[in-house]
Design brief:
Layout lengths: L1 H32 L3 H15 L4 H23 L7 H40 L2 H7 L4 H39 L4 H10 L3 H27 L4 H31 L1
Length: 257
C-alpha cells in the first residue's frame, strides 16, 4: 500500500515537472514568435474583440451586483458603530483592489480560457496544428501569440470598466436603498483613495489576462485523446487558471503590503 502510494505520488510529481517544462517551452516559443508580426498580426484585432469586447457584458453584470451587495452589507455592518459614509470607502477600496480584478479574472477564466483551450484542443486532435507545421507555419505565432497579447491588453480594460460599474452600482444602491446622499458617498469614496490603487488593479489585471490566455493555450496545445481529451483540457484550463489567479492575488496582496 505504501509503495503504491509512493509510486502514484512520484508519477504525479514527474508529470507536474514535465508540464512545467512544456509550459516553459511554449512561453519561450511565444516570446521568440513575437518578431513574426506577418503571422500573428492579421489575427490580433479579431482576438482583441473575442477576448475583450465580448467579455464586457458578463464582467459588467458581475460588477454591478457585486457593488450592490457590498453597499448593502457595508451599511448593515456599520449601522450604529461607524458613520454611514464609510460605505463609499468600503465599496471603492474593495472593488478597486480586490473584487473587481479577481471576480473579472475568474469569469474570464471560464469564458476566455475555456474557449481557447477548446478551440486549440480541437485543432490539435483534428491535426490542424500538425498541418500548420507541415506548411512551414509557426503554430505558436499563429495561434498563441495573438491570444496572449489580446489578454494582456484587453483584460485590464475590461477590469477598468467593471471597477467603474461596481462603484456606480454601489453609489446607486446607497442613494435609493440606504438614504445616503451623493456627497456623503463621494466623501467616503475619497477617504482612503490613492491613485496608485487603480494602477495596482490594472497591473494585477494584466497578470490575470496573461494567466487566463496562457493557461488556455497551453492545455489546448497539449490536448490528447479526441473529444474526451478536448473536454478534459478545457476543464483543466479553467481550474488551473482559476487557481493561479488566486495564487497571484495573494502574491500581489503581499507585494502591496
Amino acid at each position: 500500500m505504501v509503495v503504491t502510494t509512493l509510486q502514484a505520488v512520484g508519477r504525479r510529481a514527474i508529470s507536474g515537472v514535465a508540464a512545467v517544462g512544456r509550459g516553459g517551452q511554449l512561453a519561450l516559443g511565444a516570446v521568440r514568435a513575437l518578431r513574426k508580426f506577418e503571422v500573428w498580426g492579421p489575427l490580433f484585432l479579431p482576438q482583441l474583440f473575442a477576448v475583450g469586447v465580448a467579455s464586457v457584458p458578463i464582467a459588467l453584470f458581475i460588477a454591478a451586483f457585486t457593488g450592490v451587495v457590498l453597499a448593502i452589507q457595508a451599511s448593515y455592518t456599520f449601522t450604529g458603530t461607524v458613520p454611514l459614509y464609510f460605505v463609499g470607502a468600503l465599496v471603492g477600496k474593495t472593488i478597486i483592489l480586490e473584487l473587481g480584478p479577481v471576480l473579472t479574472g475568474l469569469a474570464l477564466a471560464g469564458r476566455v480560457g475555456a474557449n481557447i483551450a477548446a478551440e486549440l484542443g480541437t485543432m490539435r486532435v483534428t491535426e490542424q496544428i500538425d498541418a500548420l507545421e507541415s506548411l512551414a507555419y509557426d503554430p505558436v505565432a499563429y495561434l498563441v501569440v495573438p491570444r496572449v497579447l489580446a489578454g494582456l491588453i484587453m483584460v485590464p480594460l475590461v477590469v477598468g470598466l467593471s471597477i467603474a460599474m461596481g462603484i456606480a452600482a454601489g453609489w446607486i444602491t446607497s442613494l435609493f436603498l440606504l438614504d445616503l446622499s451623493t456627497p456623503q458617498f463621494v466623501r467616503g469614496l475619497r477617504l482612503f483613495f490613492e491613485p496608485f490603487d487603480v494602477t495596482f488593479a490594472l497591473i494585477k489585471a494584466a497578470s490575470f489576462g496573461l494567466i487566463v490566455t496562457g493557461i488556455g493555450a497551453f492545455f489546448g496545445f497539449t490536448t490528447r485523446g479526441g473529444a474526451a481529451g478536448v473536454g478534459l483540457a478545457t476543464t483543466r484550463a479553467v481550474v488551473g487558471a482559476s487557481m493561479l489567479i488566486l495564487v497571484l492575488d495573494a502574491f500581489w496582496a503581499a507585494a502591496l503590503l
